[in-house]
Write a structure and sequence with these properties.
The structure holds two protein chains of two kinds.
Chain A: E1 2-9, H1 11-14, H2 19-38, E2 42-47, E3 55-58, E4 64-67, E5 76-84, H3 88-99, E6 107-113
Antiparallel strand pairs in A: 1-5, 1-6, 2-5, 3-4
Helix pairs in contact in A: 2-3
Chain B: H1 3-26, H2 29-50, H3 56-75, H4 90-100, H5 103-117, H6 124-136, H7 140-146, H8 151-167, H9 177-199, H10 206-226, H11 231-245, H12 270-285, H13 291-304, H14 313-326, H15 330-344, H16 346-354, H17 364-376, H18 380-393, H19 397-416
Classes of the chains: A alpha+beta, B mainly alpha.
Chain lengths: 123, 418
Protein backbone atom coordinates (compact mmCIF):
# COMPACT_ATOMS: atom_id res chain seq x y z
CA UNK A 1 0.00 0.00 0.00
CA UNK A 2 1.09 3.56 -0.64
CA UNK A 3 1.65 5.71 2.43
CA UNK A 4 2.14 9.41 2.84
CA UNK A 5 4.62 10.26 5.57
CA UNK A 6 3.72 13.81 6.50
CA UNK A 7 6.40 15.84 8.29
CA UNK A 8 5.33 18.26 10.97
CA UNK A 9 7.87 20.41 12.75
CA UNK A 10 8.35 23.90 14.13
CA UNK A 11 8.94 26.14 11.20
CA UNK A 12 10.69 28.81 13.29
CA UNK A 13 13.26 26.22 14.33
CA UNK A 14 13.78 24.76 10.87
CA UNK A 15 14.23 28.28 9.50
CA UNK A 16 16.94 28.90 12.07
CA UNK A 17 19.13 26.18 10.58
CA UNK A 18 22.19 27.51 8.83
CA UNK A 19 22.48 26.47 5.16
CA UNK A 20 25.11 23.93 6.30
CA UNK A 21 22.79 22.44 8.93
CA UNK A 22 19.94 22.35 6.44
CA UNK A 23 22.20 20.66 3.90
CA UNK A 24 23.30 18.10 6.49
CA UNK A 25 19.67 17.14 7.20
CA UNK A 26 18.86 16.81 3.50
CA UNK A 27 21.98 14.67 2.99
CA UNK A 28 20.86 12.39 5.83
CA UNK A 29 17.39 12.11 4.34
CA UNK A 30 18.95 11.31 0.96
CA UNK A 31 20.63 8.28 2.46
CA UNK A 32 17.21 6.87 3.39
CA UNK A 33 15.38 7.96 0.22
CA UNK A 34 18.20 6.59 -1.99
CA UNK A 35 17.68 3.23 -0.36
CA UNK A 36 13.90 3.45 -0.79
CA UNK A 37 14.40 4.35 -4.46
CA UNK A 38 16.71 1.35 -4.97
CA UNK A 39 14.03 -0.85 -3.41
CA UNK A 40 11.50 0.66 -5.86
CA UNK A 41 9.39 2.00 -3.00
CA UNK A 42 9.87 5.77 -3.37
CA UNK A 43 7.26 8.11 -4.82
CA UNK A 44 7.37 11.91 -4.87
CA UNK A 45 9.33 13.66 -2.11
CA UNK A 46 7.98 17.13 -1.43
CA UNK A 47 9.33 20.06 0.57
CA UNK A 48 6.66 22.69 0.97
CA UNK A 49 7.67 26.33 0.81
CA UNK A 50 7.30 28.24 4.11
CA UNK A 51 3.74 28.78 5.39
CA UNK A 52 4.29 32.47 4.63
CA UNK A 53 3.75 31.54 0.97
CA UNK A 54 0.46 29.75 1.75
CA UNK A 55 -3.02 30.96 0.82
CA UNK A 56 -6.20 29.34 2.13
CA UNK A 57 -9.52 29.23 0.33
CA UNK A 58 -12.50 28.79 2.66
CA UNK A 59 -15.40 27.19 0.89
CA UNK A 60 -18.98 28.06 1.73
CA UNK A 61 -21.77 30.06 0.22
CA UNK A 62 -19.17 32.67 -0.50
CA UNK A 63 -15.60 31.53 -0.81
CA UNK A 64 -13.07 33.55 1.16
CA UNK A 65 -9.39 33.75 0.28
CA UNK A 66 -7.15 34.12 3.31
CA UNK A 67 -3.41 34.66 3.66
CA UNK A 68 -1.63 31.91 5.52
CA UNK A 69 -1.93 28.16 6.08
CA UNK A 70 -5.19 26.37 6.86
CA UNK A 71 -4.55 26.04 10.56
CA UNK A 72 -2.50 28.04 13.03
CA UNK A 73 -0.59 25.33 14.85
CA UNK A 74 2.59 25.13 16.90
CA UNK A 75 4.01 22.65 14.39
CA UNK A 76 3.51 23.09 10.68
CA UNK A 77 3.22 20.69 7.77
CA UNK A 78 6.61 21.16 6.11
CA UNK A 79 6.64 18.37 3.52
CA UNK A 80 5.91 14.73 2.81
CA UNK A 81 7.22 11.49 1.31
CA UNK A 82 5.13 9.04 -0.69
CA UNK A 83 6.40 5.53 0.02
CA UNK A 84 5.21 2.02 -0.85
CA UNK A 85 5.06 -0.06 2.32
CA UNK A 86 3.94 -3.65 2.80
CA UNK A 87 2.43 -2.92 6.20
CA UNK A 88 1.93 -0.25 8.82
CA UNK A 89 4.91 -1.77 10.63
CA UNK A 90 7.10 -1.11 7.62
CA UNK A 91 5.71 2.40 7.26
CA UNK A 92 6.52 3.14 10.90
CA UNK A 93 10.02 1.71 10.46
CA UNK A 94 10.52 3.91 7.37
CA UNK A 95 9.34 7.00 9.23
CA UNK A 96 11.76 6.13 12.06
CA UNK A 97 14.63 5.95 9.57
CA UNK A 98 13.66 9.33 8.15
CA UNK A 99 13.36 10.73 11.66
CA UNK A 100 17.02 9.97 12.31
CA UNK A 101 17.98 12.77 9.94
CA UNK A 102 17.37 15.51 12.48
CA UNK A 103 16.93 15.57 16.21
CA UNK A 104 14.18 18.15 16.35
CA UNK A 105 11.02 17.48 18.28
CA UNK A 106 8.63 17.23 15.31
CA UNK A 107 6.23 14.47 14.30
CA UNK A 108 5.50 12.26 11.30
CA UNK A 109 1.91 11.47 10.47
CA UNK A 110 1.62 8.18 8.61
CA UNK A 111 -1.40 8.03 6.30
CA UNK A 112 -2.23 5.34 3.74
CA UNK A 113 -3.37 6.84 0.46
CA UNK A 114 -5.06 6.01 -2.83
CA UNK A 115 -4.24 7.67 -6.13
CA UNK A 116 -7.44 8.85 -7.81
CA UNK A 117 -5.75 9.65 -11.12
CA UNK A 118 -2.68 7.43 -11.28
CA UNK A 119 -2.24 8.14 -15.00
CA UNK A 120 -2.10 11.95 -14.52
CA UNK A 121 1.26 13.18 -15.77
CA UNK A 122 3.40 15.40 -13.59
CA UNK A 123 3.36 19.09 -14.62
CA UNK B 1 25.39 17.35 14.10
CA UNK B 2 25.82 17.22 17.86
CA UNK B 3 22.97 17.42 20.35
CA UNK B 4 24.34 20.74 21.59
CA UNK B 5 24.22 22.17 18.07
CA UNK B 6 20.58 21.12 17.72
CA UNK B 7 19.66 22.67 21.02
CA UNK B 8 21.48 25.82 20.05
CA UNK B 9 19.41 26.05 16.86
CA UNK B 10 16.18 25.42 18.76
CA UNK B 11 17.08 28.17 21.24
CA UNK B 12 17.91 30.58 18.45
CA UNK B 13 14.62 29.85 16.75
CA UNK B 14 12.64 30.37 19.94
CA UNK B 15 14.48 33.45 21.12
CA UNK B 16 12.53 36.31 19.47
CA UNK B 17 9.15 35.11 20.70
CA UNK B 18 10.37 33.95 24.10
CA UNK B 19 12.15 37.27 24.71
CA UNK B 20 9.01 39.14 23.67
CA UNK B 21 6.88 37.20 26.15
CA UNK B 22 9.45 37.55 28.95
CA UNK B 23 9.70 41.27 28.34
CA UNK B 24 5.94 41.67 28.72
CA UNK B 25 6.14 39.66 31.90
CA UNK B 26 9.03 41.47 33.57
CA UNK B 27 8.65 44.86 31.86
CA UNK B 28 12.42 45.18 32.07
CA UNK B 29 14.84 44.31 29.31
CA UNK B 30 17.71 43.24 31.57
CA UNK B 31 15.48 40.99 33.65
CA UNK B 32 14.00 39.45 30.53
CA UNK B 33 17.45 38.75 29.09
CA UNK B 34 18.65 37.29 32.38
CA UNK B 35 15.58 35.05 32.52
CA UNK B 36 16.12 33.87 28.96
CA UNK B 37 19.79 33.13 29.65
CA UNK B 38 18.89 31.08 32.70
CA UNK B 39 16.22 29.19 30.76
CA UNK B 40 18.81 28.39 28.07
CA UNK B 41 21.24 27.04 30.66
CA UNK B 42 18.52 24.82 32.07
CA UNK B 43 17.58 23.68 28.56
CA UNK B 44 21.16 22.60 27.95
CA UNK B 45 21.00 20.50 31.12
CA UNK B 46 17.52 19.09 30.67
CA UNK B 47 16.96 18.60 26.94
CA UNK B 48 19.79 16.12 26.24
CA UNK B 49 18.25 13.88 28.92
CA UNK B 50 14.53 14.45 28.35
CA UNK B 51 14.50 15.47 24.72
CA UNK B 52 13.36 18.87 23.51
CA UNK B 53 9.90 19.94 24.65
CA UNK B 54 7.16 20.13 22.06
CA UNK B 55 6.54 23.80 22.74
CA UNK B 56 10.03 25.21 22.94
CA UNK B 57 8.94 28.82 23.37
CA UNK B 58 6.40 27.99 26.08
CA UNK B 59 8.99 25.92 27.95
CA UNK B 60 11.59 28.70 27.84
CA UNK B 61 9.11 31.35 28.96
CA UNK B 62 7.91 29.28 31.87
CA UNK B 63 11.36 28.19 33.03
CA UNK B 64 12.74 31.69 32.50
CA UNK B 65 9.97 33.20 34.57
CA UNK B 66 10.54 30.72 37.36
CA UNK B 67 14.28 31.15 37.45
CA UNK B 68 14.27 34.92 37.26
CA UNK B 69 11.59 35.20 39.92
CA UNK B 70 13.87 33.41 42.34
CA UNK B 71 16.56 35.94 41.54
CA UNK B 72 14.13 38.82 41.84
CA UNK B 73 12.93 37.64 45.22
CA UNK B 74 16.49 37.35 46.41
CA UNK B 75 17.21 40.92 45.44
CA UNK B 76 13.86 42.07 46.81
CA UNK B 77 13.14 44.21 43.84
CA UNK B 78 9.80 45.95 43.79
CA UNK B 79 8.13 44.46 40.78
CA UNK B 80 4.61 43.25 40.28
CA UNK B 81 4.87 39.47 40.51
CA UNK B 82 2.57 37.19 38.57
CA UNK B 83 0.30 34.60 40.10
CA UNK B 84 2.33 31.74 41.53
CA UNK B 85 -0.13 29.00 40.77
CA UNK B 86 1.00 28.85 37.15
CA UNK B 87 4.60 28.35 38.21
CA UNK B 88 4.44 25.79 40.99
CA UNK B 89 4.98 22.56 39.12
CA UNK B 90 6.97 22.67 35.92
CA UNK B 91 5.93 19.37 34.40
CA UNK B 92 2.23 19.92 35.05
CA UNK B 93 2.24 23.55 34.10
CA UNK B 94 3.92 23.24 30.72
CA UNK B 95 0.76 22.21 28.92
CA UNK B 96 -1.58 24.87 30.28
CA UNK B 97 1.02 27.59 29.85
CA UNK B 98 1.43 26.78 26.22
CA UNK B 99 -2.28 27.40 25.90
CA UNK B 100 -2.10 30.62 27.92
CA UNK B 101 0.33 32.32 25.59
CA UNK B 102 -1.63 32.20 22.40
CA UNK B 103 -0.47 33.45 19.06
CA UNK B 104 -2.19 36.80 19.51
CA UNK B 105 0.02 37.49 22.54
CA UNK B 106 3.17 36.34 20.80
CA UNK B 107 2.33 38.59 17.93
CA UNK B 108 2.12 41.74 20.02
CA UNK B 109 5.05 40.66 22.20
CA UNK B 110 7.36 40.29 19.24
CA UNK B 111 6.13 43.50 17.68
CA UNK B 112 6.74 45.36 20.96
CA UNK B 113 10.22 43.90 21.32
CA UNK B 114 11.20 44.94 17.80
CA UNK B 115 9.46 48.28 18.18
CA UNK B 116 11.61 49.05 21.23
CA UNK B 117 14.69 48.66 19.08
CA UNK B 118 13.39 51.29 16.62
CA UNK B 119 13.50 54.04 19.25
CA UNK B 120 13.64 57.33 17.32
CA UNK B 121 16.45 58.69 19.50
CA UNK B 122 18.72 55.85 18.45
CA UNK B 123 20.79 56.23 15.29
CA UNK B 124 20.05 53.56 12.69
CA UNK B 125 23.19 51.55 13.39
CA UNK B 126 22.30 51.32 17.08
CA UNK B 127 18.76 50.23 16.29
CA UNK B 128 20.22 47.38 14.29
CA UNK B 129 22.83 46.52 16.91
CA UNK B 130 20.15 46.42 19.59
CA UNK B 131 17.87 44.20 17.50
CA UNK B 132 20.74 41.83 16.75
CA UNK B 133 21.69 41.61 20.41
CA UNK B 134 18.26 41.38 22.03
CA UNK B 135 15.98 39.88 19.42
CA UNK B 136 18.37 37.66 17.48
CA UNK B 137 20.73 36.92 20.37
CA UNK B 138 23.97 37.50 18.47
CA UNK B 139 26.92 37.97 20.82
CA UNK B 140 28.47 41.40 21.27
CA UNK B 141 31.66 40.18 19.60
CA UNK B 142 29.72 38.89 16.57
CA UNK B 143 27.97 42.25 16.21
CA UNK B 144 31.23 44.15 16.74
CA UNK B 145 32.85 42.14 13.94
CA UNK B 146 29.98 42.88 11.56
CA UNK B 147 30.27 46.60 12.27
CA UNK B 148 34.07 46.62 12.26
CA UNK B 149 34.39 48.08 15.75
CA UNK B 150 36.02 46.74 18.88
CA UNK B 151 34.03 44.59 21.25
CA UNK B 152 34.38 47.21 23.99
CA UNK B 153 33.02 49.95 21.74
CA UNK B 154 30.06 47.80 20.71
CA UNK B 155 29.37 46.84 24.32
CA UNK B 156 29.24 50.54 25.22
CA UNK B 157 26.96 51.32 22.29
CA UNK B 158 24.52 48.59 23.19
CA UNK B 159 24.50 49.54 26.86
CA UNK B 160 23.81 53.16 25.96
CA UNK B 161 21.06 52.13 23.55
CA UNK B 162 19.45 49.95 26.24
CA UNK B 163 19.43 52.89 28.67
CA UNK B 164 17.67 55.12 26.17
CA UNK B 165 15.12 52.42 25.45
CA UNK B 166 14.54 51.73 29.16
CA UNK B 167 13.82 55.41 29.85
CA UNK B 168 10.96 55.33 27.37
CA UNK B 169 7.64 54.18 28.78
CA UNK B 170 6.54 51.65 26.22
CA UNK B 171 3.02 50.48 27.02
CA UNK B 172 2.79 46.78 27.83
CA UNK B 173 -0.95 46.49 27.33
CA UNK B 174 -2.22 44.85 24.19
CA UNK B 175 -1.81 47.52 21.52
CA UNK B 176 -4.85 48.97 19.80
CA UNK B 177 -5.30 48.50 16.07
CA UNK B 178 -3.96 52.01 15.29
CA UNK B 179 -0.94 51.42 17.57
CA UNK B 180 -0.25 48.16 15.80
CA UNK B 181 -0.61 49.89 12.44
CA UNK B 182 1.93 52.48 13.57
CA UNK B 183 4.43 49.94 14.89
CA UNK B 184 4.53 47.62 11.91
CA UNK B 185 6.10 50.07 9.40
CA UNK B 186 8.72 51.12 11.97
CA UNK B 187 9.59 47.49 12.57
CA UNK B 188 9.66 46.79 8.83
CA UNK B 189 12.09 49.69 8.43
CA UNK B 190 14.49 48.34 11.05
CA UNK B 191 14.36 44.89 9.44
CA UNK B 192 15.26 46.41 6.10
CA UNK B 193 18.08 48.40 7.73
CA UNK B 194 19.37 45.19 9.26
CA UNK B 195 19.19 43.47 5.89
CA UNK B 196 20.96 46.29 4.09
CA UNK B 197 23.68 46.41 6.71
CA UNK B 198 24.40 42.82 5.79
CA UNK B 199 23.88 43.30 2.09
CA UNK B 200 25.84 46.49 1.48
CA UNK B 201 29.49 45.95 0.89
CA UNK B 202 30.57 48.90 3.02
CA UNK B 203 32.63 46.91 5.46
CA UNK B 204 33.52 43.56 6.91
CA UNK B 205 33.79 40.34 4.97
CA UNK B 206 30.82 38.60 3.40
CA UNK B 207 31.26 35.84 5.94
CA UNK B 208 30.28 38.00 8.90
CA UNK B 209 27.66 39.99 7.03
CA UNK B 210 25.55 37.36 5.29
CA UNK B 211 24.14 36.21 8.65
CA UNK B 212 22.70 39.72 9.11
CA UNK B 213 20.68 39.26 5.92
CA UNK B 214 19.55 35.81 7.04
CA UNK B 215 18.49 37.16 10.45
CA UNK B 216 16.45 39.89 8.77
CA UNK B 217 14.70 37.34 6.56
CA UNK B 218 14.10 35.01 9.52
CA UNK B 219 12.46 37.83 11.50
CA UNK B 220 10.43 38.94 8.48
CA UNK B 221 9.05 35.41 8.00
CA UNK B 222 8.27 35.22 11.69
CA UNK B 223 6.40 38.55 11.60
CA UNK B 224 4.64 37.53 8.44
CA UNK B 225 3.32 34.38 10.10
CA UNK B 226 1.91 36.57 12.85
CA UNK B 227 0.58 39.26 10.47
CA UNK B 228 -0.22 37.16 7.40
CA UNK B 229 -2.28 39.69 5.46
CA UNK B 230 -0.03 42.77 5.55
CA UNK B 231 0.87 43.58 1.93
CA UNK B 232 3.93 45.65 2.80
CA UNK B 233 5.30 42.91 5.09
CA UNK B 234 4.79 40.47 2.21
CA UNK B 235 6.51 42.97 -0.09
CA UNK B 236 9.45 43.46 2.25
CA UNK B 237 9.93 39.70 2.68
CA UNK B 238 9.85 39.20 -1.09
CA UNK B 239 12.27 42.09 -1.60
CA UNK B 240 14.82 40.73 0.86
CA UNK B 241 14.55 37.20 -0.53
CA UNK B 242 15.08 38.48 -4.08
CA UNK B 243 18.07 40.63 -3.20
CA UNK B 244 19.69 37.90 -1.14
CA UNK B 245 19.12 35.37 -3.94
CA UNK B 246 21.89 37.19 -5.84
CA UNK B 247 24.42 37.28 -3.01
CA UNK B 248 26.67 34.54 -4.46
CA UNK B 249 26.86 36.30 -7.82
CA UNK B 250 27.40 39.90 -6.81
CA UNK B 251 31.02 39.76 -5.67
CA UNK B 252 33.82 38.12 -7.63
CA UNK B 253 36.62 35.99 -6.22
CA UNK B 254 38.62 39.14 -5.42
CA UNK B 255 35.64 40.68 -3.59
CA UNK B 256 34.92 43.28 -6.30
CA UNK B 257 31.33 44.18 -7.15
CA UNK B 258 29.88 42.38 -10.17
CA UNK B 259 27.18 44.48 -11.86
CA UNK B 260 23.77 42.93 -12.47
CA UNK B 261 24.48 42.79 -16.21
CA UNK B 262 27.67 40.80 -15.67
CA UNK B 263 26.41 38.42 -12.98
CA UNK B 264 26.34 34.68 -13.59
CA UNK B 265 22.61 34.07 -13.22
CA UNK B 266 23.29 30.38 -12.67
CA UNK B 267 24.58 31.38 -9.22
CA UNK B 268 21.28 32.96 -8.22
CA UNK B 269 19.41 31.05 -5.54
CA UNK B 270 16.37 29.73 -7.41
CA UNK B 271 14.62 28.48 -4.26
CA UNK B 272 14.68 31.95 -2.76
CA UNK B 273 13.45 33.48 -6.01
CA UNK B 274 10.55 31.02 -6.23
CA UNK B 275 9.57 31.71 -2.63
CA UNK B 276 9.81 35.47 -3.20
CA UNK B 277 7.64 35.37 -6.32
CA UNK B 278 5.01 33.36 -4.42
CA UNK B 279 5.03 35.87 -1.57
CA UNK B 280 4.89 38.85 -3.94
CA UNK B 281 1.92 37.32 -5.77
CA UNK B 282 0.09 37.18 -2.45
CA UNK B 283 0.91 40.83 -1.76
CA UNK B 284 -0.36 42.05 -5.11
CA UNK B 285 -3.74 40.36 -4.58
CA UNK B 286 -4.46 42.94 -1.86
CA UNK B 287 -4.22 45.78 -4.39
CA UNK B 288 -2.70 48.05 -1.71
CA UNK B 289 0.61 49.02 -3.26
CA UNK B 290 3.48 50.34 -1.17
CA UNK B 291 7.19 51.04 -1.58
CA UNK B 292 8.38 47.57 -0.53
CA UNK B 293 6.01 45.85 -2.93
CA UNK B 294 7.09 48.07 -5.83
CA UNK B 295 10.77 47.49 -5.07
CA UNK B 296 10.11 43.76 -4.85
CA UNK B 297 8.27 43.87 -8.17
CA UNK B 298 11.32 45.54 -9.75
CA UNK B 299 13.66 42.93 -8.27
CA UNK B 300 11.26 40.22 -9.49
CA UNK B 301 11.53 41.46 -13.08
CA UNK B 302 15.30 41.10 -12.88
CA UNK B 303 14.92 37.64 -11.33
CA UNK B 304 12.55 36.54 -14.09
CA UNK B 305 14.86 37.59 -16.94
CA UNK B 306 16.92 34.58 -18.08
CA UNK B 307 19.59 36.94 -19.48
CA UNK B 308 20.32 40.62 -18.85
CA UNK B 309 19.24 41.39 -22.45
CA UNK B 310 15.80 39.94 -21.64
CA UNK B 311 15.13 42.45 -18.85
CA UNK B 312 11.74 44.20 -19.17
CA UNK B 313 13.06 47.77 -18.86
CA UNK B 314 9.76 49.35 -19.88
CA UNK B 315 7.99 47.73 -16.94
CA UNK B 316 10.90 48.56 -14.62
CA UNK B 317 10.81 52.21 -15.69
CA UNK B 318 7.08 52.36 -14.93
CA UNK B 319 7.60 50.76 -11.54
CA UNK B 320 10.31 53.29 -10.67
CA UNK B 321 7.90 56.04 -11.74
CA UNK B 322 5.33 54.52 -9.34
CA UNK B 323 7.97 54.42 -6.61
CA UNK B 324 8.80 58.07 -7.26
CA UNK B 325 5.17 58.91 -6.54
CA UNK B 326 4.92 56.70 -3.44
CA UNK B 327 8.27 57.60 -1.96
CA UNK B 328 9.93 60.48 -3.81
CA UNK B 329 13.72 60.52 -3.48
CA UNK B 330 16.61 61.49 -5.75
CA UNK B 331 18.02 57.97 -5.40
CA UNK B 332 14.80 56.50 -6.81
CA UNK B 333 14.95 59.05 -9.65
CA UNK B 334 18.54 58.02 -10.34
CA UNK B 335 17.45 54.40 -10.65
CA UNK B 336 14.64 55.41 -12.93
CA UNK B 337 17.17 57.25 -15.10
CA UNK B 338 19.18 54.02 -15.40
CA UNK B 339 16.05 52.24 -16.65
CA UNK B 340 15.37 55.09 -19.08
CA UNK B 341 18.93 54.73 -20.35
CA UNK B 342 18.34 51.06 -21.17
CA UNK B 343 15.02 51.89 -22.78
CA UNK B 344 15.67 55.10 -24.70
CA UNK B 345 19.43 55.48 -24.72
CA UNK B 346 22.09 57.37 -22.75
CA UNK B 347 21.19 60.88 -23.92
CA UNK B 348 17.74 60.84 -22.32
CA UNK B 349 19.16 59.22 -19.18
CA UNK B 350 22.01 61.71 -18.81
CA UNK B 351 19.57 64.64 -18.92
CA UNK B 352 17.65 63.07 -16.02
CA UNK B 353 20.84 62.30 -14.10
CA UNK B 354 22.24 65.80 -14.49
CA UNK B 355 19.00 67.24 -13.11
CA UNK B 356 19.75 65.34 -9.88
CA UNK B 357 23.28 66.74 -9.45
CA UNK B 358 22.43 69.20 -6.69
CA UNK B 359 20.43 66.59 -4.73
CA UNK B 360 23.15 63.93 -4.74
CA UNK B 361 26.42 65.84 -4.29
CA UNK B 362 28.24 63.15 -2.27
CA UNK B 363 26.59 60.02 -3.64
CA UNK B 364 28.91 57.34 -4.96
CA UNK B 365 26.38 55.77 -7.32
CA UNK B 366 25.45 59.13 -8.86
CA UNK B 367 28.97 59.55 -10.22
CA UNK B 368 29.23 55.88 -11.13
CA UNK B 369 26.05 56.06 -13.22
CA UNK B 370 27.07 59.40 -14.75
CA UNK B 371 30.47 57.99 -15.69
CA UNK B 372 28.92 54.92 -17.32
CA UNK B 373 26.46 57.04 -19.35
CA UNK B 374 29.24 59.39 -20.51
CA UNK B 375 31.33 56.37 -21.50
CA UNK B 376 28.41 55.08 -23.60
CA UNK B 377 28.08 58.53 -25.19
CA UNK B 378 31.77 58.50 -26.19
CA UNK B 379 32.77 61.35 -23.88
CA UNK B 380 35.73 59.67 -22.13
CA UNK B 381 37.25 62.77 -20.51
CA UNK B 382 34.04 63.72 -18.74
CA UNK B 383 33.48 60.05 -17.89
CA UNK B 384 36.92 59.91 -16.32
CA UNK B 385 36.10 62.99 -14.25
CA UNK B 386 32.89 61.37 -12.96
CA UNK B 387 34.66 58.09 -12.14
CA UNK B 388 37.36 59.98 -10.25
CA UNK B 389 34.67 61.63 -8.13
CA UNK B 390 33.09 58.21 -7.51
CA UNK B 391 36.44 56.73 -6.54
CA UNK B 392 36.90 59.46 -3.94
CA UNK B 393 33.47 58.65 -2.51
CA UNK B 394 33.87 54.84 -2.45
CA UNK B 395 33.16 53.46 1.02
CA UNK B 396 34.65 50.02 0.55
CA UNK B 397 37.47 48.31 -1.35
CA UNK B 398 34.81 46.54 -3.45
CA UNK B 399 33.29 49.84 -4.58
CA UNK B 400 36.71 51.31 -5.32
CA UNK B 401 37.77 48.20 -7.26
CA UNK B 402 34.64 48.41 -9.37
CA UNK B 403 35.30 52.03 -10.35
CA UNK B 404 38.98 51.33 -11.12
CA UNK B 405 37.79 48.63 -13.49
CA UNK B 406 35.63 51.20 -15.31
CA UNK B 407 38.57 53.60 -15.53
CA UNK B 408 40.80 50.80 -16.88
CA UNK B 409 38.24 50.01 -19.58
CA UNK B 410 38.08 53.68 -20.48
CA UNK B 411 41.86 53.92 -20.75
CA UNK B 412 42.07 50.74 -22.85
CA UNK B 413 39.39 52.08 -25.19
CA UNK B 414 41.32 55.32 -25.57
CA UNK B 415 44.57 53.51 -26.31
CA UNK B 416 42.98 51.22 -28.87
CA UNK B 417 41.29 54.16 -30.62
CA UNK B 418 42.91 55.14 -33.92
Amino acid sequence: MLYAILCYDREDVVESWTPEQDGAVIAQLDVVTDRLAREGRLGPVVRLMPTTTATTLRKGQETIVLDGPFAETKEQLLGFFIVECASLEQAIATAKDLGQASSTSGSYEIRPLRLLRPEAPRP
Amino acid sequence: MSTIAWIDVALRGARPQAMGALLRHFRDLDLAEEAFQEACLRALKSWPKNGPPRDTVGWLVLVGRNAALDGVRRRKREHALPGEEALSDLSDAEGPLAEQIDDADYRDDLLRLLFMCCHPELPATQQIALALRIVCGLTVSEIARAFLVTEVAMEQRITRAKKIVAAERIPFETPSAPERAERLPAVAAVLYLLFNEGYSATGGSALVRVPLCDEAIRLARLLLRLFPGEPEMLGLTALMLLQSSRSKARLDAQGAIVLLEDQDRGLWDRDRIAEALAVLDKALRHARPGPYQVQAAIAALHARAPRFEDTDWAEIEQLYAALERLQPSPVVSLNRAVAVGKLRGPTAALAMVDALAKDLPGYFYFFGVRGALLTDLGRPDEAREAFDRALALAKSPAEAAHIRLQIDRLTRKKESAP
